[in-house]
Amino acid sequence: MTLLAEDVWFRYGRRGPWVVRGASLAVAPGEVVGLHGPSGAGKSTLGGLLAGLVAPSRGRVTVDGVPPRPDRRAGRPNPVQFAHQHAHLAMDPRWSVREVLAEAGAGEVPAELVPAALLDRFPHEISGGEAQRVNVARALLAGPRFLVADEITASLDAIGQARVWRLLLARVRARGIGVLAISHDRPLLDVVADRVVAFADLTAPAGAEPDGTSPDR
Ligand code: ADP
Ligand code: ADP
Predict the structure, then answer these.
(1) Is residue 214 part of a domain?
(2) Is 100 buried (19+), middle (13-18) or exposed (0-12) by CB count in 10 A?
(3) Per-residue pLDDT reduced to its tens digit, 46-89
(4) 128-138 pLDDT tens trace
(5) Atom of ligand 1 at shortest distance to CA of 43?
(6) Is the CB of 40 under 6 A from ligand 1?
(7) Which residue has its alpha carbon closest to ligand 2 atom 20?
(8) Closest residue to atom 23 of ligand 1, CA basis
(9) Residue 118 in contact with residue 183, Cβ under 8 Å?
(10) Cα–Cα distance between 147 and 109 in angstroms, integer?
(11) Measured distance CA(135)–CA(130) in Å, rounded
């Protein structure tokens, strides 16, 4: 059970620049891998590929040989959950926090992530940092094997950041969830991750083109 990217290439549209160029990466169960790089490098895009939010233009992303995708008809959520940096964008404005969490799955919601006072609020009534914590709680309730955590504490102060990560790390370790922690904040990744990879080391230089031998979609 490994989350695997193999020679993954991706661009937005048919003619845009290649944003992800031949990236290969493995995340093992229970492992926290940090993905570091400057803003705009392509980290979120690679995270979205690993979570199956978008399909590679070339190459493969798999969990145990199967592309990560929710099986809605079988009622199975995606084994790879994605927690957004822009958490508000991931929330339906018509749903209260309580409804968002109930829809994700059954289970206890840590009050440290989502205090009771937040439960009956709607997305426009909570801050960016609160939305990020709701998003993390939602992802955990979905019972993932892997979690892509994209700048999940970027809107929190240092204390809030430490609280969220301490709680998250305890949960993922207890359940053997593999994590891809995406951040531009190298010192943060050095603290939370078992190993840190630089986006630039995963991908060919800007302007590189895939060769004709890669599997096409
Ligand atoms: P980040 O801080 O992760 O680089 P941004 O704030 O730049 O993200 O982008 C916010 C949202 O807009 C993201 O969901 C991202 O996927 C999307 N986005 C970023 N750049 C573009 C673009 N050039 N065209 C369309 N959507 C974009
Ligand atoms: P990072 O997460 O490292 O900040 P992103 O993956 O958000 O980087 O963005 C990488 C590049 O892809 C940027 O140039 C961004 O503008 C572009 N991009 C991101 N989302 C979109 C989109 N939906 N459509 C077009 N371009 C996008």
Answers:
(1) no
(2) buried
(3) 999 999 999 999 999 999 999 998 777 777 788 999 999 889 98
(4) 999 999 999 99
(5) 3
(6) yes
(7) 45
(8) 12
(9) no
(10) 17
(11) 9
Residue 216 lies in a domain: no
Q: Are 136 and 81 in contact (CB under 8 A)?
A: no
Please state at what angle helix 97-104 crosses helix 128-141, rounded to 10 degrees. 20
C-alpha closest to that of 31 among 144, 179, 196: 179
ipTM above 0.85, yes or no: no
Ligand 1 center–CA 210 separation, angstroms:
24
Looking from the CA of residue 199, the nearest atom of ligand 2 is 3
Ligand 1 within 6 A of 184 CB?
no
Kindly report the CATH number assigned to the domain that includes residue 51. Answer: 3.40.50.300
Residue nearest ligand 1's atom 3 by CA: 44
pLDDT at residue 212 in the model: 63
Within a domain: 113? yes
Provide the number of structural domains found in the chain.
Answer: 1
Task: Give 147: exposed, middle or buried? Use CB within 10 Å, 0-12, 13-18, 19+.
Answer: buried
Local mean pLDDT, 10-residue blocks, the chain (217 residues) = 96 93 97 96 97 95 90 79 90 95 91 94 95 94 95 92 94 96 96 97 93 53
Look up the domain containing 102 and give its range: 3-201
What SS3 state is found at 27? strand
H helix or E strand, kind and range, residue 20: strand 20-27
How close are the terminal C-alpha atoms of the chain, in Å? 24
| Residue 62, in any domain of the structure | yes
